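Aim 2 progress update. The chain analyzed this quarter is reproduced below.
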Amino acid sequence: MNFYCYAHSALRKPIRDLAINPRYPRMAVCYDDGTIQEMAIPSLARTAQHRSRRTGIAFGLTWSSDGTTIYSTNEYGHRALHWINGLTQPPQVLFEGPIHDDDQAAMEAWDGFYPTLIQSDRLGKELACDSFGDIKRWNANDLTTIRLLNVHNGHSLGFAFHPIQSILASCGIDRTIGIWDELDVATIWPTNQFAWMSDIAWSSDGASLLCTGSEPHYGIHHSSLVQRWNPWNQRLEAEYRMPYATSQKIAVHPSQPLVAIGHLDHTISLWHSDSWQAYATLKSHYVHIDELSWSHDGQWLISVGSKPEHYYYGIEVWAAHT
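Predicted structure tokens:
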């Protein structure tokens, strides 16, 4: 089976995050200027546009499990905003951080938490946000804090909720993996082979974790590394080295044994997740693959790429020849 680029939308402004609707053929992207756009899959036709009432960088996006609401994190100066909008409703600010450093009352309520990454689980119970390595888990219904986790020594680079259970996994800039179950029992362990970790994902059956990154002391074109971990005993099950540049993002197909990995050399590689045999290699219009995800039904692969030195950015939708 061969893949081809079905649709391509070129842009002139950086895309911060990509979120795929879990129920409907649509997605959302956010930009540096705080704008969020909803787009149809696979046509990339823009169906709606939203903007925070304050300007600032939009850091992250996620959809609610029922596909009707977008949660986002925005920044104003050094203060984060959370806001929400339904498919047919205007944006509504749920809560926000203090705007001035001397606003002590607001600082205490906000607890100094400035989120960047955001992710929701598939059960409709929780959201998770990162702030400099601390992860706060929120109740998805009323956005009350469930717990604050001191996790990584530095930023979290990737989140992944378990496909069936309320278990959160994350990887950090300190090259560690952490998982937390419903009872807040934490397990954190190091990954010694990585020079840099970039993303994490559960396998489709939830039995293992896949981590992407680069290996130390290797040339830029031969540094891609993927590790498969058993999270229940922290045992490294396998390592896969690839003849590509650093593995940036990973996306596991929702129903087939297929894994897509975005690299930093125009390449998206597809692999059979059981045998780890090469499945296909896609050549992107862009050097860096910054975001990568399958559509909710697994029919389309969506990538966000960039050529930062030329200020080129864009979205590609990939389809398989049948």
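DSSP finds one helix and 28 strands in the chain. The two ends are 7 Å apart (CA to CA). These observations will guide the mutagenesis experiments scheduled for the next reporting period.
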